[in-house]
Write a structure and sequence with these properties.
Elements (H helix, E strand, L loop, with lengths): L5 H20 L4 H10 L4 H18 L10
Helix pairs in contact: 1-3, 2-3
């Protein structure tokens, strides 16, 4: 899919899942999520995209945050 090997795709999806799970668990505001990703070395476009997705979906994804998993 999109030229990724199955291992690369699994790593990508697992990484995205981890980011959103941590954001939910820590009740991270969307703007702060983007800022923290930038500080961690993520490029601006993906960091902004994570923040925007989190802004739109966090209420659905973070309830209840401590027991939610994307798996």
């Amino acid at each position: 899919l999109f030229g990724f090997s199955s291992e690369q795709l699994e790593l990508l999806l697992s990484s995205c899942s981890f980011i959103f799970e941590q954001a939910a668990y820590l009740a991270t505001p969307p703007a702060k999520l983007g800022d923290e990703l930038l500080k961690a070395g993520v490029e601006e476009a993906p960091a902004t995209a994570f923040g925007e997705v989190w802004q739109q979906a966090r209420s659905a994804l973070a309830s209840p945050a401590t027991s939610f998993h994307f798996n």
